[in-house]
């Protein structure tokens, strides 16, 4: 089982504004931009070894560090970061990690603390809002 976040645009309210429904029935372009932004942010987290809010991931146990080839958390074989994906449709965007063990890394186990990878923070929401507002402003001119 992989981890993912799905973002869906509710176009019901938009449809109440006369003439706008046909203009915004396909929000794929801004959704692609937002997913690309979230993908970059998530890849950066693997480099900084931190959660979406910027807090460092829990350190590894000394015996785990001793047997690792690299001095990084979550990037020993790059399987997780290489499993990062995005999917976009007219009104939905999804970002996730398809590697099976991601769910244990992200959620933790009784022997391993959780190290959050996927998340939408206030900063990320604000960026997404700016992307969509810019797009809507352009098409409604």
Question: Describe it for me?
Answer:
- By secondary structure, the chain is of the alpha+beta class.
- The chain is built from 6 helices and 3 strands.
- The protein has a 3-stranded antiparallel β-sheet.
- β2 and β3 form a beta hairpin.
- α2 runs antiparallel to α6.
Keywords, please?
alpha+beta, single chain, 141 residues
User: Count the strands?
Assistant: 3
- What Rg do the Cα atoms give? 18 Å
Summed over residues and divided by their number, the pLDDT gives a mean of 88
Largest sheet: 3 strands, antiparallel
Secondary structure blueprint with pairings:
Layout: E1 3-8, H1 20-23, H2 28-48, H3 62-67, H4 79-82, E2 84-88, E3 92-97, H5 102-107, H6 122-139
Antiparallel strand pairs: 1-3, 2-3
Helix pairs in contact: 2-6
Briefly, what is this?
The protein is of the alpha+beta class and 141 residues long. The chain is built from 6 helices and 3 strands; from the N terminus they run E-H-H-H-H-E-E-H-H.
């Amino acid at each position: 089982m992989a981890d993912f976040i799905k973002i869906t645009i509710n176009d019901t309210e938009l449809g109440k504004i006369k003439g706008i429904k046909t203009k915004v029935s396909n929000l794929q372009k801004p959704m692609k931009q937002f997913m690309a932004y979230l993908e970059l942010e998530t890849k950066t987290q693997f480099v900084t070894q931190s959660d979406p809010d910027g807090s460092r991931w829990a350190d590894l146990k000394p015996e785990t560090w001793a047997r690792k080839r690299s001095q990084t958390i979550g990037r020993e074989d790059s399987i997780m970061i290489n499993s990062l994906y995005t999917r976009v449709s007219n009104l939905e965007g999804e970002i996730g990690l398809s590697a099976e063990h991601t769910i244990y890394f992200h959620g933790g186990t009784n022997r391993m603390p959780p190290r959050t990878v996927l998340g939408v923070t206030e900063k990320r929401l604000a960026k997404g809002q700016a992307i969509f507002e810019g797009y809507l402003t352009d098409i409604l001119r």
